[in-house]
Amino acid sequence: MMGLTQFALNSIAALWLQFPVQPPAASSIAESVDHVYYFLTGVTVFFTVLIFSIIFYFAIKYRRRPGKPYQPETHTSLFLELSWTIIPSLICVVIFVWSSSLFVRNNRPPANSREIFVIGKQWMWHIQHPEGPREIDALHVPVGENIKLTMTSQDVIHGFYIPAFRVKKDVLPGRYTSVWFKANRTGVYHLFCSQYCGTNHSEMIGWVYVMNPTDFAAWLAQGEQSESLAQQGARLFTQLGCDSCHNAAASSTGPSLAGIYSKPEKLADGTTRVVDDSFLRQAILTPSTIHVAGYPQIMPTFSGQVDEEQILQLIAYVKSLGAQERTNGQ
Amino acid sequence: MSTTATVENLPNASAEPQVNYLNARYGVKSWLLTVDHKRIGLLYLCTITVMFVVGGIAATMMRINLLEPQGALVEPETYNKLFSTHGLVMVFFFLVPSIPVTLGNFLIPMMIGARDVAFPRLNLLSWYIFATGCLIMLYVVCTGGVDTGWTFYTPFSTTYSTTDVVLAALSIFVAGFSSILTGVNFIVTIHKMRAPGMTWFRLPLFIWSMYASAIIFVLGTPVIAITLLLLGVERLLHVGIFDPALGGDPLLFQHLFWFYSHPAVYIMILPSMGVISELIAAFSRKRIFGYSFVAFSSLAIAIISFLVWGHHMFVSGESIYAGLVFSVLSFLVAIPSAVKVFNWTATLYKGSISYEAPMLYALGFLGLFTIGGLTGLYLASLSTDVHLSGTYFVVAHFHYIMVGAAVMAFMGGIHFWWPKITGHLYPDLWARIAAAIIFIGFNLTFFPQFVLGYLGMPRRYAMYPAEFQALNVLSTAGASVLAVGYIIPFIYLIWSLKYGPVAGPNPFGAKGLEWTTQSPPPTENYLKIPIVTEEAYNYETAPEPEVVRV
Q: In this model, does residue B5 exceed pLDDT 50?
């Protein structure tokens, strides 16, 4: 008899484990997002139970009974109408303010983030670390460090989604989008494509490995890929002949790129734009749309000659020039 | 609708068999060339039933496939075509037209005391246009299908998909004209054809909701037509509109698409809200609590629904500030829906409530719409939407609204007016059993999907990690219960056409002009145009219910 009870209990426990209700929470924002989720669940349960109870109560109390005289009355109540307009509105205001402030915070990457690049293509995730290592359908990150992913797609729209971190952002062709997170628990977590992208959309999945900083450093150092992204970019910069115009000589036909990254650049039409990833991408692919003041607009397009990966290498190189400038300045 | 009108519009009992719109003329030609709004409503009913079956078969195959993590039935390529077919057929060829073109066509002239809609020939033309759209869609399905999802996101649909995207888009483009013409017809009919004494605030709430959805038809549908046209232009002529490789903007497509497709959600739900108002009033024998609040909330929903499209794009790369604005507007559109739910619930207070099948559907609607509406808040809220968008949580949420609420109301409405439409009663016990099975099957199918979404399972996945299997199996089990629930009414409703007892003019003892004429109504609806002298739902003067139990 005891054995049977034990068996039954074990079976129920085993069955229960088949029905998970909570995803792992492994980032600095996961818990705060979950709190909004719990609050919403509380509101949902409260109002559902309220409506269901009232319906059941009225449905039984006022059921039609043969022989019982019934006199229809018309009911209206401005007080009730106003209360069930105003109370839900107030609840919505609370959720909106709370949830939006989290959203704004979760969308602004902290300044000291480690940057990693993501290229989505049918149907794989290509991850590129600035130090050189690249991975397919896997992302290694250190725990406790702010990570900023700069993402683009080589073909259709994809969606970069790590449920355990509660982050998601579409990955678009032709522009950069970004997400940031700080993983706070080591482990292995799902990486999904969340935007339908064609035949093998459901196989465009991978794993995120959250590691101790020492393990991560060891992981970065291993492997034969020793050239950093910026070094690859430098090689490409010479290969494509960019340096024939973009050099430090006073007579150069193109602006020198040293130290321009993240600085405002004056354009011929009088406006200024901060030089960021999107600016550089645009300058490489459609130079005719950017006219830097003081220079002739003669740069040919490199569209079709460089792929998304190489554009990221060039950007990393330009960025590294900025860093050198600052170092020299000091 | 005084007592006199009632008597005048009913022929003497000795005059059997009555001449009505069904037996006035016979033959295929009499149906295909009819300009009678009631017959056109039935033509539509047959058409959308066929489309519902097609979409339902696709859904069944999807649910079977999801029994196993690696896919139990088909290859991913086929699965993608199944969910695309399911979405396209169910949204554009069943849900959007469902209540307006069947019950709306049948009831609008009857409820306002008119002999037909304002433009009867245009009405028939609408059906032919719609049927053409259906045929093109069925052709696409039979010749290999389309794999873009019902959302056609670019540049996948314009550059990368190898399926017949242009023809699928064409079918919706064509069917859209049917929506526009129907919308125009309804607006003019409601403005110009009301019987003497039928003032705006004496209109049944069903008419208010049809009016609101007709406005969306007319204002929204041209936008989807233009969007699909641009999609075809880019795909066929490679003009850069949406594909960045050609110089286009992929987000532009999403803005245009959702500018129509979010209001389209309200095209699906507003008419069902109208049906529910009628059912709850009739079966609690009371005037709807807060009539004008319910009426104006329909218009408020129709207007605000055009301003919330960006909430489909919170993670698409649209700016944070756009996200904030669309979030606040999305919360705003929840308020009129809440107002309706509270008013319907309050209508039950001190009523005389009976539980025929239509009322069970109405109460089921209330429950499922409440859950569907409240879970919408999770998606209007920005930080939770980031996690939940594109997952099964969204799938569960919109099925609670579109199937849980809209289809429940459609079924309830069909059951309520079936005796009026056909002149026959169906077996109420079977109908109540079916309503209960649908309610249980629906919750079993879609509630687990809320959990799946929160766990992070993305939608449109032909294969999935093994830890999601148990909940998927539960959902598929529920879907089979749901299928049984849909098949039962199909059988007894067909049965009732021949064997159902004669209904009489007003079997439920309901108020409303349509119940004052014979069942089925004569071709001209009313032998004499009624003169309306009282508010809607004045149950103090209502006749006693005369339901004959089958």
A: no
